[in-house]
Amino acid sequence: MTLGVGPTTSPAASSRLGRGVAVNLAGTVVSAIVQFAVAILITRGLSGIEAGILFTTTSIFFLANSVGQLGTQTGLVYFLPHHVGTGREDLVRGYLREALVVVTALAIAMALAACVLRDQISSAIFSDPATADKASDYLVPLAVMLPFMAIEFVSLAASRGLGTMRDYSLVELVTRPSLQLLLIIGVLIVGPQHLFSGAMASAWALPYMLAAAIAARLIWRRVRNFPRAPTWRAFPDRRIFWKYTAPRGATNVAQSAMQRFDIVLVAALAGPVEAAVYAAATRFIVLGQMVVNAINLAAQPGVAAALGREDVEAARHIYRTSTVWLMLITWPMYLTLLVGSPVLLQAFGSGYSTGESVIVVLALAMLISTALGQVDMVLAMSGRTSWNLLNALLALATLVAVDLVMIPGHGALGAAIGWGAAILVRNVAALIQVWLAVGMHPFGGSSLLVATLSTLTFAIIGGGTMTLLGENVGSIVVAVAGASVLHMALVWKLRRRLDLADLIAGLRKRRSRPTAV
């Protein structure tokens, strides 16, 4: 079972984790660049109102997919490693078929409902009739792609459950966003005004069709030689599977709502232009979240396998090591956002400078969140998905309550305060639960060392450099370049204390032996 660890916390555990992280991070770098380019094209190629409509409707699209997944992504990653490791490969195809049939059927139903009710949905969000009509046209192509998105996500989750990160990296992090970028460029070259209404939404959504086909083909190649599974009606673990995934499905909906519903609330309470500002400013935060997700997905099967055989020490080792690597990558990013947000927002064009306060609030929240590591994932892999659900609902309630109070008077900043508060509530609650129930926490000398190094190089030295040179693109390039060189030199010197020796060994092993990760 790939990404699992041995009975003790050996360097091999970090090496395997390192290979999984490396594959995901490579794809994440590509995806981050492409998605950031997409956001810039949207904000510069469309008016503030049209950009706000597109960001809002795509947020609804993501929320609908989160509802339709029913927690199967986590369920497949949880169950498949357990059964493969215990020699029950005959159940793998049954789990995959169970998830695909149910999730795809639900996605088709939601797509039909969205197409029929598109006018009512758009009118409920946008009070202006012209804006609502435009949003209604955007919703149709997005809704049609829901079944394809469902197939893609289930297939890639099964691949991760079988121990490989390459399928997810290839399809979701590289191929789909790259095609999305090309289609959006094509629409902008022709001119949205010369095409049908909703052409931009179609360009954004169509790549999910190809991604679904590729993902389905890849997972079929991995499971076709497995022993034949029981028939769909006779699948023995159906009740166990849905009992586990049901709380996680509700948790995923709450988590997705935390990331997307605030854009919808901003559009409804402050207008589409303010929603565009908020969506653009949060793109920087999403870049860091992609790194969090990359490391989280790589560590997930290993933690599940270790806790499945009650090897808490091995799970603790993965948790702490992945937290150090997470901080090592994300803290420089978030600290740079804190000191350089006025310059960075210039990438989106005029009218987006008011998003500076949004970046500052969320960057502070994410610094704290990443220092706690993938605590939510550890809680889920320990089997306590109902606890995850309670935490997610508490966080969502916090977000909605704060948003309803703050957005009418403060617009995008109010939404940022709500999201930041929700992030902290959820992660702190999960930390307390993992600490008390499993006896695990992410804190240690290595994570403190990373925090100190990052603050010194990027906040103090980098921030000081930008202050001396002024707020311009040249100053931030010089500051980030200088801070990065110093940071990497210090990290390299302290690589053994940061478990980087094991990561490097894992990367070398991957280059010399082409195994799945």
General description of the model:
This protein is mostly helical. It has one domain (11-511). 82% of the residues lie in helices and 0% in strands. It has 20 helices and no strands. It has helices at 11-45, 48-69, 72-85, 92-116, 118-125, 129-144, 146-161, 166-190, 199-205, 207-223, 238-270, 272-308, 312-344, 356-371, 375-381, 385-410, 412-437, 445-469, 473-493, 500-512. The longest helix has 37 residues, at 272-308. The N and C termini lie close together (10 Å). Mean pLDDT is 83; it is low at 1-11 and 509-517.
Provide a concise account of the structure shown.
By secondary structure, the protein is mainly α. Helices cover 82% and strands 0% of the residues.
